[in-house]
Amino acid sequence: MPDTFLWGSASAAYQIEGAAQEAGKGISNWDEFVKIPGKTFKESTGEVAVDHYHRYKEDVALMAEMGLQTYRFSIAWARIFPKGHGEVNLEGVQFYTELIDECLKYGIEPMVTLYHWDIPQALVEEYGGWESPKVVEDFVHYATFLFNQFKGKVKYWITINEQNIFTTFGWLTAMHPPGKFDDEKMYYQVNHHVFLAHAKSVLAFKEIMPEGKIGASFAYSPSYALNSDPIHAMAKMDFDNLKNFWWMDVYAYGRYPKNAYHYLEQKGVAPIVTEADQTILKQAAALIDFMGVNYYQTSVAEYNPIDGVGPYGEMNTTGKKGTGQVTGIPGLYKNPTNTHLKTTDWDWVIDPSGLRYACKEITSRYDLPIVISENGLGAFDTLTDTQEIHDAYRIEYLSKHIEELMKASEEGCEIWAYCTWSFTDLLSWLNGYQKRYGFVYVDRDEVGGSLNRYKKDSYYWYKEVIETNGQSITVK
Known about the structure:
The protein is α/β, with parallel strands linked by helices. Helices cover 40% and strands 13% of the residues. The radius of gyration is 21 Å and the shape is globular.
């Protein structure tokens, strides 16, 4: 990869920090949501998570030993502003200051995510959180505070993580907070509020740090038409406009895809967009520095008859292969499993070439640099009696994805960084602690554990990848 390329790894505050009610932190929406029986695997919570709050020095030292060049992490809004606005929690500020300084001490570039799904519960109770336009100014105030606080220390910033996922699961499938089902009109209005929060934060950022780099991270699932039948090609177009370009076009162009917006207008669920909103979105789009991509899998688009499958179905959260159901929008598309590819135990398609596809499509469509802000394999890992973890399957997965990333770079894609998900094992939002992603095994399950850290085989493998700037991977 180019000499300026950053090899990294990633995490999220709720999934690793713990200390949920310590040091002045306020309650988040997730702190409340996990109290609802049946919402998470074996009622798992992030109250302790993997205790990164108290063990961050140990974790950063392991990153440094590996040679990690960038560490992407999120800041918990409620740890800075316990009520969402108003009084600042200085203990929270101090924690993130120390974490950033610890990274810088070892030459690790901090990459900060402003929002990784945990809004202060106080704002939900005050005005409905993301459902109210009031949230925009509170978010921008929070973001601006952090920009000023860490100016000169943090160069790379991500505004919103996977907006498409937290809004879909929160307002359409009830799997994430606020746990609403099929509230489609609110879903699109919530997304519009998030877009405005992103855009106004970008504008504020460029006033404070004109040389800094900022973008959003999108959970991108590129699509393939089922076959060459034009009816499936049209299904792919509809899928892309409603499930991919709806977000990326706003980030990069400051506007919604016209066909998709018209379709939603006909249904009566399109968001209300004022002329002032349009101006703000376009101004921010002209200033973003990169497109952040969380890549895990691709999708197949097949025509879905009007009496076909609906958008809601069983999602595999147990790791029992084959339990996920096909979903879609009647009259437009459905997303069957790709029969040409293998899947993980959670029914996620394994498609390394899809990462290259994603990079090439973004490069051609948006002409933006790319930050791969997440890519990784969730799997069942086993700690041996000799405290080893032999995760050859993870090495194979990551190696093949990096190989395709290198090809994308050779083919003209400007890729700034690659962050695996994740560095240590952590709490998977709906899947508990059994679904492991990290290079470092953390001894804990849904009941508890020692929280001791153990390096997996993949830890040593990625260390070599970084040392050789990817040359240890043979590109075929």
